[in-house]
Amino acid sequence: MTATAPLSRYADLPALIGLMEGDDKHRGAAHGTLDVVWVLYDRVLAVAPETAGDPARDRFLLSKGHGPAAFYAVLAAKGFLEVPALRGWASFDSPLGHHPDRVLVPGVEIGSGSLGHGLPLGLGTALGLRAQGVRRPDGAAPRVVVLVGDGELDEGSNHEAIAVAGRLGVDGLTVVVVDNASSSLGWPGGIGSRFLTEGWEVREAPGRDHEALYASFTRPHAGRPLAVVARVRS
User: Fold this and answer.
1) Angstrom distance (rounded) from CA 96 to CA 85
2) What pLDDT was estimated at residue 28?
3) What angle, 0 to 180 degrees and rounded to 10, lies between the N-to-C axes of helices 27-39 and 69-77?
4) pTM of the model
5) pLDDT value, residue 75
6) Under a CB-based contact definition with an 8 Å cutoff, are residues 162 and 224 in contact?
7) Is the distance from CB of 210 to CB of 35 less than 8 angstroms?
8) How far apart are CA 183 and CA 185, in angstroms?
9) pLDDT tens, residue by residue, 140-165
10) Residue 168 binned pLDDT confidence (cut-offs 50, 70, 90)
11) How far apart are the C-alpha atoms of 118 and 68, rounded to whole Å?
């Protein structure tokens, strides 16, 4: 299986993740993000291996960069990576590290692992695309989707980005919060209230329900950024 022959079944993903051994600490984190990442790449994002360098592509930023096995598995399933590369991940000469590297891994938009920087980078990307007037072939603005963990929202850089995005009405920006109840501080009224207060459109969905996730990602939210809280308990 090579990058030119992608898979198309969600059922293939556990076997692909199983090829990547040696990161048991983050195995739960990987499986917690699997359904969200799959729905995005399979049904929502306008990006493919042949358009990965197109300025008008949709962009996915994995801010929750610890335990990227699910992300690598989806990239391999969709043809960005060769499947055999998964077996040697995190080895000395492998481009696939425990934190994704945008320079080394096709389809990766940012180097991640330092929690709290993905959302500010996503905001800057969405603002830059809006300022340049970039449009996809279907006439829509490119979409920038950032995946964060609920614990990551404790970082102050996220609060600043949330406030700015809401006030500027950056509707090209979507944040997916994978909520597995790991936040140390939490937020009065729940995670969604944090975004709602700052002027975002907020939706919640079970983190393993593909239809609910798809509906949350695709319903219109003109004039406001979108936050999707994906609840995962495992």
Assistant:
1) 8
2) 59
3) 40
4) 0.92
5) 95
6) no
7) yes
8) 6
9) 899 999 999 888 888 889 999 999 99
10) very high
11) 14
The CA-to-CA distance between both ends of the chain, in Å, stands at 31
Judged by DSSP in three states, 68 sits in coil
Contact 122, 74 (CB under 8 A): no
Token pair recorded at residue 197: 């207060």
Phi and psi at 200, nearest 5°, equal -90, 155
Token readout for 156 is 């102050």
Quick one: pLDDT band at residue 107, thresholds 50, 70, 90?
A: very high
Q: What span, in angstroms and rounded, lies between the C-alpha atoms of 33 and 72?
A: 11
Q: Which residue has the higher pLDDT, 44 or 190?
A: 44
Q: CA triplet 113, 36, 226: central angle to 5 degrees?
A: 85
User: What pLDDT is stored for residue 4 in this prediction?
Assistant: 39
Sheet holding 173-179, edge to edge: 59-62, 144-149, 173-179, 226-231, 201-206
- Reported as a pLDDT band with limits 50, 70 and 90, residue 29 is low
> CB of 71 within 8 A of CB of 79?
no
- Asked if the model's pLDDT at residue 2 lies above 50, the reply is no
User: Which domains can be identified in the chain, with CATH numbers?
Assistant: 10-231 (3.40.50.970)
d(CA 72, CA 70): 5
User: Do the beta carbons of residue 226 and residue 143 sit within 8 Å?
Assistant: no
- Whole-number average pLDDT of the chain: 88
Query: What is the distance between the alpha carbons of residues 173 and 125, in angstroms, rounded to a whole number?
Result: 9
Q: Are 60 and 36 in contact (CB under 8 A)?
A: no
Length of the chain: 234
